[in-house]
Amino acid sequence: MTRAIVKGFKKLIIVPRDPASFTRSSPAYNPEDGSQVAVNEPRYVEGPWAGSKALLVEEGTTNLFKNASFEVYTGMTGVADGWASAVSSGTATFSVVTSPIRPSGSKAQKVSNSGMASAGHITDVHQDITGLYGGQPYSLSGYFNVESLNNAYVQIYVDFRDAASAWLGGNSRGHYSTTAGFIRLCISGTTPAGTARCQAHAILRATAAGGSGTFYVDDMQYEVKPHPTSIILANDTTTQATRSPETLTIPTAGVLNPQEGTVEVTVIPNLSSSATPSSVLGFHDLVWMTTDASKGFIVRRKQGGIEMLSRRSAGHQNGFYPVTWNVGDKLSIAVKWDSAKLYLLVNGQLAITLDKFDDPGSVQLYIGSRADAPPQGNALYADLRISSRARTDAEILAAYQSGQPLPVDEWTTLKVPFDASLAGYGPGYVYVPSNKTRVVGGPRRTKAVLLSRS
Length: 454
Ligand SMILES: [Ca+2]
What we know:
The chain is mainly β. It has 3 domains: about 1-15 and about 425-454, no CATH class; about 20-60 and about 245-420, Jelly Rolls (Sandwich), CATH 2.60.120.200; about 60-240, Galactose-binding domain-like (Jelly Rolls, Sandwich), CATH 2.60.120. Helices cover about 0% and strands about 45% of the residues. The chain is built from 1 helix and 32 strands. It has one helix spanning about 395-400; strands at about 10-15, 20-25, 30, 35, 45, 55, 60, 85, 90-95, 110-115, 120-130, 135-150, 150-160, 165-175, 185-190, 195-205, 210-225, 240-245, 245-250, 260-270, 285-290, 295-300, 305-310, 315-320, 330-335, 340-345, 350-355, 365, 380-385, 410-415, 425-430, 450. Strands 5, 6, 20, 25, 26, 27, 29 and 30 form an 8-stranded antiparallel β-sheet that branches. A hairpin with a 6-residue loop joins strand 21 and strand 22. The longest helix is centred in the last third of the chain and has 10 residues, at about 395-400. It is elongated, with a radius of gyration of 27 Å. The protein starts with 8 loop residues before the first strand and ends with a strand. The site of calcium ion has 10 residues, from loops.
């Protein structure tokens, strides 16, 4: 039987495609609400549009504090196990409380003093960390809820000592007002030469005689890193808890066209362009590359800009685009390639042009990490769209300026919004017959049917 005449039209619809894959071999904590997230479960936080979510891809870390969340308390002093206290003067009160707390656990440490004798006097909790070396990067962070202050402020403080306990140097940051809830205070730097250990503190410090106040501290973290990452903890007094690095990939077969294509994604960095450490190789956003790094491309954020690398047998190339961003800013990244060139567009503007990479073959596209080296992107990812052709600069600019999620169209091979899900989508078509369709020699179509998921 042959159908000779078919009238009507194909209507574009959105159909499911293979989802993205996410791994993390340890639990983690959602930085937005503090809740624990299970092994291999993504962390979704506030996304680029009202009500939307984005997916965090973060490097691993180890928190050198024990009982970092003040969850274990078996003593009589009011100070959580593994922590010590110091009081210069006045009437200090310490207690392990069940409110207010961070949702990572059920307890927090309260520190209070009703009247310190003079400026500089302190009331604190602290913990010693051993096994450190000089010249190591460090980041100390903690969540503080400041209930009251009078001639006093709250301070996160670290001092470094050598093996003989001689003081070598310190670092601190103050917070001078009450808070509506928990806020995170962070300090970063490099340990002084000769460092063997440190003492890290959460302090109420007087600015004048009679200084008083009350604060709560929770989820303290000391990392051997030049920048802080999200909290990891263990609810005991012995473990220095480790969070595993995260990977996010998509299958490339039938999705990435090595001859011509476009990859677009919205990136919301955890660190500003100026706070991105100069020592960091680059926070990896998009990597389509062989594991020996000989073929493919890389896009990554460095201090003060974005770098793109083209890996090719005819000679590797890289380009750097100076651009600034703050924490929470949206960066619209678009990588496109044709038969000769590889292009990077940032926020709709052409940023870098390089010679075309060599086809890395059938490997995965990494979003926010790479297979062969750290670090992760340490950023939120949303609205990934992959296309089968090099979209024009004007198209990419218009999509950026629309301020809307990227649409699925006939050139889309995969769209993954990361809006609280790893689900992927692509174009499909339904055939919509017109009323005047005549079908000769075949069954008459009476309703729309799915014709293609190509
Ligand atoms: Ca806690």
